């Protein structure tokens, strides 16, 4: 076990990892995990300065290297400015973790409008595209790079009243596979991590009944933690995953098998 941990840390050492939407929730845990494995972390967020500062502080207390960047990644000019800032501070980006998300409201189908779908596509298709294009030439020149998209099990579950979100996450899976095919010859991999329901801050107030109902259908019998997602992302960011691309990795305790 010690040898494996050392190998992973060596592989992430000095890599510049951009994690979007990392001031809280899964993004914060992903940022902490890759930092613990030796990466230089560019922590992106939009509005919550205090929570972003808290994550930065926690990483720095453990000796990690991190800087925060408050930019709207759905806007092209903001993405370009952010990438320029990261390159000044850390150097060229090696790994992009597309985690950022917007509101995830349940909406009955008869009340859904096209803008509900566009709002989700902004985060799960537009933002990843903008970030890739801002880094693609340099990744191609280095013949190296990692794109890690954070998807969801809802693509397989087809959750009701959630078509806008499910469709956008499905599109993210599709672009993962297309990008993997196109970018593979340049040494750039693209994979997707599909979490199950991992309790984070936004789930505060959820009833015990709802938790129990979800857990009852899990082969492992319990929900995962944000760190479970972070560890898989750290692996995909490392050299240990160099022959894995175009894949969806479900991290959901066996809820789905796809």
From TrEMBL:
One of its GO terms (molecular function) is oxidoreductase activity. The keyword Oxidoreductase applies. Keywords: Oxidoreductase. Gene3D superfamilies: NAD(P)-binding Rossmann-like Domain (3.40.50.720). PANTHER family: OXIDOREDUCTASE, SHORT-CHAIN DEHYDROGENASE/REDUCTASE FAMILY (AFU_ORTHOLOGUE AFUA_5G02870), SHORT-CHAIN DEHYDROGENASE_REDUCTASE FAMILY PROTEIN. Belongs to the short-chain dehydrogenases/reductases (SDR) family. This is 3-oxoacyl-[acyl-carrier protein] reductase. It comes from Arenibacter troitsensis.
